[in-house]
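Q: Joint fold for the lines below.
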Amino acid sequence: MKILVTNDDGIAARGIHALISELKHIAEIYVASPDRERSATGHSITVFEPIKAVKKKIADVSGAWVIGGTPVDCVKLAISRLAPEDIDLVISGINHGPNLGTDVLYSGTVSAAAEGVIMGKPSIAVSLDSYEEEMDFAYAAKFVKRMVLTLMKTGIESQTLLNVNIPPLPEDQIKGIRITRLGTRNYENLFDERQDPRGNSYYWMGGGIKDEEQDPESDVAALEDSFISITPINLDLTDYHLIQQYKVKFKDYIYTPGDSHDIP
Amino acid sequence: MKILVTNDDGIAARGIHALISELKHIAEIYVASPDRERSATGHSITVFEPIKAVKKKIADVSGAWVIGGTPVDCVKLAISRLAPEDIDLVISGINHGPNLGTDVLYSGTVSAAAEGVIMGKPSIAVSLDSYEEEMDFAYAAKFVKRMVLTLMKTGIESQTLLNVNIPPLPEDQIKGIRITRLGTRNYENLFDERQDPRGNSYYWMGGGIKDEEQDPESDVAALEDSFISITPINLDLTDYHLIQQYKVKFKDYIYTPGDSHDIP
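A: Joint structure:
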């Protein structure tokens, strides 16, 4: 089995090395990671500048590249040019901090895994729900290894993207696994305004998460309840329910060739 | 009616000014646009640097800001701090180039509109299916105005995101409107490898779109058939179908408090 490992915290982050040190026991590992932290880059790609890829030696890893680009660049470049064609699985993480609810849209970690699926590989994004500097990734990495062993038995289809969030707790305090839906994450006091020495305003993005009632089936609730959350993610963003509704809303204005209806 | 206009091609792009010049006849306009082109930035946000916002005068516009950030930053900052609280609608565009199928994930234009929905406002992303430099945005802008007038009559809910793509054709050659689903966009020869003067490899992202059979209900097919495509987009990325499947796959490993099951 061949696994491509990536992340958005950069090649120096502890999370990716914790992951590698567990996965190398069960698979041939390839690594493509950004040269520096690229959190909150979402699904951005580098199209107006060239992307550098520098080969790096990592113990027990079959091939590793440090990429001067976004997490999505890393996966695109590794799967199409750098790594072997027959990569079986992409794993992105372990992110230092959670990726829950609508926040997955901003997440470089989840976007890198999403790109794995776009490139035809089943993919898993893994995040540890803690920003604490000294946080230990060992248990989270061990869990990912066990999860991959389970999926090797039960199967994982190529179009599958799983978003995994792990509570920052000792193993014996984790209550189990829940297969969840994405919850809600709304922020308050999003921007902090400052003035530069010339009196011009600038803003820092920040803010706190609004305390909201969560669906008990959600990823947010699972973490609050000390469960590991696994959310299957769908990359077809079409809202099929609304298609019918908008066909009705625009029905007076939909014209077909030969039809006498005019554009609105 | 108050409309926030944004884009990812930057404040100097012709597409946003074409849009403003039509919409100002039907609504009070506010503008928050990046200071330069920010295409392919996806849903990235600026969290490690401060964001500058400079007020700008635009004729017949009630408030305009040029933002030193991504398209999503523009919408977050405008809705939470710069524009009036009672913005009714966010319109992002008109993008110079299409935003179809899975490519919507990379699109700054669509991501800006998605952020409008996250901030509680119904939002529309608009793209003109042409990269031609001298392309005329006038008809596309006129269509958006008519579309907004239609929605003012038929209603648009706050959680609604519509992705609109317009063929680069004279008005009398456009065959109508189709309410569509997202199609597929796969690329071939994604990277072009070069060598720097010291012999190190670097890569340009590029490549061509693979010619694939398209679902006739898709946005890609609509454009190929000279129709305007309107795709409703859903930002709950949960794959509800897979939840059940993964509950089964992991059932031997799901333990609840007091349960004797062990973690895998």
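Q: Anything notable?
A: Residues 187 and 210 of chain A are 5 Å apart (CA to CA). The first strand of chain A starts at residue 2 and ends at 6.
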